[in-house]
């Protein structure tokens, strides 16, 4: 026996269908743009040089609306506010913690949720203190300053994806898997962790994967993941996205040439490899600031960032000071750069540098500051 839908149900179905069609159209448009010869545009996503202001400049004040235990030692924070900038999978936020410490956390919520951002962090006993402050100070109702979002780890337009996650490194990959699923693009994920209880968002991923697309490897019961087998099973010319500890990333990079033809590796570091140290033979040099007309001397053992903040621009934005977050990227107008970062592409190195670690390869640099 058939049931005739009521008018309200018909209207609801039409609205839902329209929303679904709009999302599909948006995904198709994004793919067409990325295939365009003009993508990416030959410029930074946002003007980094000359923003000025330092702490509070271009920042938002958001409230912790919900705090949940995403896994053992992992808290997830849902931050709410008004007129939040849109984001895409792979993006991260800079959180300005109550102490003034700035840390980067990948967005792991739903990009379609225009009213909130979700981040997650694992408590690191041997970390630099940021994760402990998040766990101890950011509770429901607390306001926190954020900057961004910014995306240094975008999801490329490919016909198939293999995601390799290690522990908290799953956070940027979760929205990528959601997007691939929504757009009907084949994907698989290898998710490794110390134990199932320590792996955040595991239940959500198992539900999203549905069948055999998710391989969960808990070290306490399963040992190490078989990365060679995972790569061998990837379709030719698929995109491999990896985020996790350095040994995991290094292993995937080493095994990639043995996989099918045309695999491309995309990785993101969520902790510095090692603190930068002054290289033997570093010499002093001058940094000329085109906009302000000032000239600053950078001595051996001192970063460009520190020299600029101490001598000319005390409010310059920065965060990790170790060459992997991109907060301090500045445009170079003249001079040759000795790049020592973990982040910039070859194209970006043509006209910019990270002033927290890189130096001049010569007597001077001119910056757009």
Automatic annotation (TrEMBL):
InterPro entries assigned: 2Fe-2S_ferredoxin-like_sf, 2Fe-2S_ferredoxin-type, 2Fe2S_fd_BS, Beta-grasp_dom_sf, FAD-bd_FR_type, FNR_nucleotide-bd, MRET, Riboflavin_synthase-like_b-brl
Domain named FAD-binding FR-type: residues: 57-156
Cofactor(s) listed: FAD
Pfam families: Fer2
Molecular function via GO: 2 iron, 2 sulfur cluster binding; metal ion binding; oxidoreductase activity
PROSITE patterns named in the record: 2FE2S_FER_1 (PS00197), 2FE2S_FER_2 (PS51085), FAD_FR (PS51384)
UniProt entry keywords in alphabetical sequence: 2Fe-2S, Flavoprotein, Iron, Iron-sulfur, Metal-binding, Oxidoreductase
Ranges of residues in domain 2Fe-2S ferredoxin-type: 285-369
Descriptive protein name: Oxidoreductase
């Amino acid at each position: 026996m058939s049931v005739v839908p009521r008018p309200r149900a018909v209207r609801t179905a039409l609205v839902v269908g329209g929303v679904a069609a709009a999302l599909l159209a948006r995904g198709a448009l994004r793919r067409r743009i990325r295939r365009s010869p003009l993508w990416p545009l030959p410029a930074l996503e946002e003007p980094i040089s000359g923003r000025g202001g330092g702490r509070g400049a271009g920042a938002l004040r958001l409230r912790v609306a919900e705090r949940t235990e995403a896994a053992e030692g992992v808290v997830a924070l849902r931050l709410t506010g008004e007129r939040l900038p849109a984001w895409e999978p792979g993006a991260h936020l800079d959180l300005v913690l109550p102490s003034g410490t700035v840390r980067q956390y990948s967005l792991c919520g739903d990009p379609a949720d225009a009213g909130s951002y979700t981040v997650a962090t694992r408590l690191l006993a041997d970390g630099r203190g940021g994760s402990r402050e998040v766990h101890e100070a950011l509770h429901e109702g607390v306001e926190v300053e954020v900057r961004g979002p910014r995306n240094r780890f975008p999801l490329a337009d490919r016909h198939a994806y293999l995601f390799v996650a290690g522990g908290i490194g799953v956070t940027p990959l979760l929205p990528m898997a959601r997007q691939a699923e929504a757009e009907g693009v084949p994907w698989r994920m290898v998710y490794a962790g110390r134990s199932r209880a320590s792996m955040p968002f595991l239940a959500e991923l198992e539900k999203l994967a549905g069948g055999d697309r998710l391989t969960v490897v808990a070290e306490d019961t399963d040992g190490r993941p078989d990365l060679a087998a995972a790569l061998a099973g990837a379709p030719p010319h698929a995109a491999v996205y990896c985020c996790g500890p350095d040994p995991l990333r290094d292993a995937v990079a080493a095994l990639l040439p043995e996989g099918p033809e045309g695999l491309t590796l995309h990785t993101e570091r969520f902790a510095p490899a090692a603190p930068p140290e002054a290289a033997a033979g570093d010499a002093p040099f001058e940094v000329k600031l085109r906009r302000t007309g000032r000239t600053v001397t950078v001595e051996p053992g001192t970063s460009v960032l520190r020299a600029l903040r101490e001598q000319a621009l005390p409010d310059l934005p920065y965060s990790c000071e170790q060459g992997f977050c991109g907060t301090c990227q500045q445009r170079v107008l003249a001079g040759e750069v000795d790049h020592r970062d973990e982040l910039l592409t070859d194209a970006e190195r043509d006209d910019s540098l990270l002033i927290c670690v890189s130096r001049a390869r010569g007597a001077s640099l001119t910056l757009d500051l």
